[in-house]
Amino acid sequence: MDKIAPFHRLHNSPLNPNPLTQNPNSRTHLPASLSLAPTSTFPDFTPLSASPLQASEFHSPNLSFSQLLSDVKTLNSIKTMHAQMLKTCDDWSSDSMAQTLITSYLKVRDFRSAAIVFFMGFESNYAMWNSFLEEFGSYGGNQIEILHVVKELHSLGVMFDSRAITVILKFCTVLMELQLGLEVHASLIKRGLEFDKYTRSAVLNYYERCWSLEIANKLFDEIPKRDDLLWNEAIILNLKNDRFVRALQLFIEMQISFAKVYATTLSKILRACGKERALDEGKQIHGYVIKQPLESSNLLICNSLIGMYSRNGKLKLARKVFDSMKEHNLYSWNSIISSYAALGNLNDAWNLFQQMESCSVKPDLVTWNCLLSGHAVHGFYKEVFMILSNMQVSGFRPDSSSITSVLQAVIELRDLKLGKEIHGYVIRNGLDYDVYVGTSLLDMYVKCDCLTFSRAIFDNMKNKNIVAWNSLITGYAFKGLFEEAKALLTKMEEEGIRADLVTWNSLVSGYAIWGYDEVALGVIQDVKRSGLTPNVVSWTALISGSSQNGNYRESLQYFIQMQRDGIKPNSATISSLLRTCGGLSLLHKGKELHCVSSKSGIIGDVYIATSLIDMYCKAGDLKSARKVFRGSNNKTLACWNCMIMGFAIYGLGREAISLFGEMKEVGIEPDSITFTALLSACKNSGLTSEGWNFFDCMNKDYGIVPRIEHYSCMVDLLGRAGYLDEAWDFIQTMPLKPDATIWGAFLGCCRIHTNLEFAEIAAEELFKLEPHNSANYVLMMNLYAMSNRWEDMERIRDLMAEKGVRNREVWSWIQIDNTVHVFSAEGKPHQDEGEIYFELYQLILEMKKLGYTPDISCINQNIDEGEKEKALLSHTEKLAITYGLIKNKGREAIRVIKNTRICSDCHTAAKFMSVARSVEIFVRDGVRFHHFKEGKCSCNDFW
Predict the structure, then answer these.
(1) Which of 6, 125, 438, 586 is a good FRET partner for 392, with 20 to 30 A between their CA atoms?
(2) Distance from chain centroid for Cα 547
(3) With b meaning 16 or more CB within 10 Å and e meaning fewer, what string describes 333-352?
């Protein structure tokens, strides 16, 4: 094929209006497979109105064609100038002159002429095809017109060489012109040009983009002689399509063929090794790099090595690569800083940031965004705003990536006011066009409980992705607005967006959280009917929601169904099940889950460790809880809080305070939950002055404003210690309005100290706040019974009947082997009731010899003392403990769960039982844990 001549050499006359028709007999046609019908004739470059410019003007030392063209404003004058250039200039095809001519045609929107000049004007244009395509589009040209010009040129007999064909194929690839690309390839095969390396690379790219990677790979395999460019192109195309294994196979075959791998290809392979977590393969490629003396110091490759090692969690190796580099560019610094920040080594990231500035390398927006993202991901939310401020002081305007990280911090802090400020910044700076920013704003308002704002943002989003739909559906579902959630789901499907597992799982979780377990289970069945397969998240959402609502038995049943479906639990599932075991005090089942966690390799998960501590504390095995806590690395605040609360419910106030001291020493800042645990520990241990100190330092030293639960703890602390007047004054002066927890704590203290005056005030408030809570009425009846005020007791009973308040069912249960035995005050009698009462009678006789005296004040019935003693025997905790003693063959500890507060008589009886049978007894009542051993209780009779 003849090489295309410069455009001006195709003219036989000084100014031919149609040069390609000057000698029709010399025209050489392409094969029939590429025969394209002409669309029109070539542009006539003959002056239409302007007179020809003098040749002397073009040869002026002070005046160039580019300068002259810059003054030309109309199409006719551009054509006139073009004609004069062809006639008088010997080297009109210089880059700058031809580029100026193309731009001139584009400015007057003569897109066809601009394309002709590009293809006919000068050979170096072929290397600038991408910038031409961009410029062509920027002036409003339809890029398909470029290919129309190609067809026209071909129909007129222009013979394109391999470089021109390469550019044409690239245009076909970008514009997805499938048919023309096939015709060009057919022409190449017939003309024997398929062996040109640039052309073959273009063909490979065309088939990958316009048809499929499989066809491109097949084409590559059929090429007998492959040059370096083709090998590298094939690897890159496979990496682009996430065919990592195929790319590695090609890389290995490439070495056998002694082909040279380019630095850009090595860089992309290393990035893929990071993405695929292929550490071994990455190390092998690193070894290959070291053997190549010219490549081992390549900045691009070294930067990719840093990224590969960091994404595989090998920060030390990433740093070793960084330190071995002779020079670092900005990308190198950003890579290593990003690695440290992403993996949570934030202090090291800041040190590198300072070192970078000391090396006179100025950070850019990417650097700041790396720090923002690292702090947001690892929970340092307040620091995110400090970084944002410093970044702006340094002259950088936050972009969409910055805003996304900041909004993540806003979401976690639930700081709606700050979120609105960020929203204002987004609008003022035009960042709301970004779908990720829009979705993050929507999610922020959802998490901050502002569904109205979320819906407004959603309705104004132009390009809604499925994440935006799912976020709003989740917001409605978690708020309990299921009709709105289902309506949104229907609208989403009407707009052609198919619900995915995230959509369905949000509904499962919402229903489960609101206690609609059966409906949630039905949604899981809907998932199956939709053609999707419920995953571990689906089942975990159901299990977790049931557990949070106290439906512990149901959550265990759902776990069994999940296993039947062949779904393996993850750390979130195990955490939810451990919460269930803690709620039911199923110590043996909890230990089994502990073993499952160890075998599954997730025991190191900090959430699993926290859940194990919580489970062991609630199941009465404080020793195991301590062991898990001490063996846990990288303890989070939740982990410390859980252990402190564990000490609190066991009445080990001094141990809780000591652990708080350890927590401060390792640099963990407390939150409001920490102080709830500390104040609970103090109230359960009678540490009044310590409790006051913690309450006072909350706001003063840590900036934590006391909430209602902290005030409730203080009322309980003062009241239990006998300072009822101080507790009363505290309630009167507290800045928050007292709620049921405050008055409930105060009433409980009044019962301990038999103070009817204050008790009646507290009860009156409680009857207003919780008119259907039977516990408040029962507590007052007990107080009146203790004071022999039977008429008042009957008045309260009548009040309950008048308001329709039913007594809360009282039960206790104990697990023997794998069976749970429930003892209810009003339910069905236990099958071994006769044996239990016989054993209990015998036990009471033994206990009386040891000094036990029944506390008949616990019976609020107006009957004689003998009947009251008999009534005490039917208390459910006594029956459960006795049954445990009957079945306790190996002298193991007895563990009983009771849903209400243990009475004083049962508390005393349990101490004597521990002596009479030489056994440890754990009773978890509705308030706290009691550990009875050798006639003493861990609460020190302070409960």
Answers:
(1) 438
(2) 23
(3) bbbbbbbbbbbbbbebbbeb
- Indicate the pairing of strand 819-824 with strand 811-816: antiparallel
Distance of CA 3 to the CA centre of its chain: 58
Q: Give 273-303 pLDDT, tens digit per residue.
A: 999 989 999 999 999 888 876 544 578 899 9
Q: Which of 259, 350, 344, 281 is nearest to 310 (CA)?
A: 344
Q: Are 581 and 589 in contact (CB under 8 A)?
A: yes
With contact defined as beta carbons under 8 Å apart, do 905 and 858 qualify?
yes
pLDDT at residue 202 tops 60: yes
Question: Which amino acid makes up residue 620?
Answer: G
| Residue of 118, 116, 178 whose CA lies nearest to 151 | 116
Residue 168 Cα to chain centre, angstroms: 44
* Burial tier of 38 (Cβ tally within 10 Å: 0-12, 13-18, 19+): exposed
List Cα–Cα distances, 273 to 287, 305, 742, in angstroms: 14, 9, 58
**Pair 694, 682: CB distance under 8 Å:** yes
Amino acid occupying residue 26: S
Cβ atoms of 816 and 887 within 8 Å: the answer is yes
Rounded Cα gap, residues 428 and 256, in angstroms = 58
Joined together, the tokens standing for residue 428 give 């003022």
Q: Which long-range contacts (CB under 8 A, 24 or more apart) does 662-669 make?
A: 666/635, 668/635, 668/637, 668/640, 669/637, 669/702
Q: Looking at this protein, which amino acid is placed at residue 225?
A: K
Let me know: does 698 contact 711? Beta carbons within 8 Å: no
Structure tokens at 838: 């016989």
Average pLDDT over residues 404-426: 93
Instruction: Count the Cβ atoms, other than its own, within 10 Å of residue 744.
Output: 23
| 821-856 pLDDT tens trace | 989 877 788 899 999 999 999 999 999 999 999 988
DSSP secondary structure letter of residue 363: P
**How far is 614 from 577, CA to CA, in rounded Å?**
12
User: Rounded CA gap, 354 and 430, in Å?
Assistant: 32
Contact call for residues 84 and 110 (beta carbons, < 8 A): no
> Within 13 A of 654's CA, how many CA atoms are on the CB side?
2
Closest CA relative to residue 538, chosen from 495, 559, 509:
509
Residue pair 106/143 in contact by the 8 Å Cβ criterion? no
Token pair in block for residue 686: 């009678």
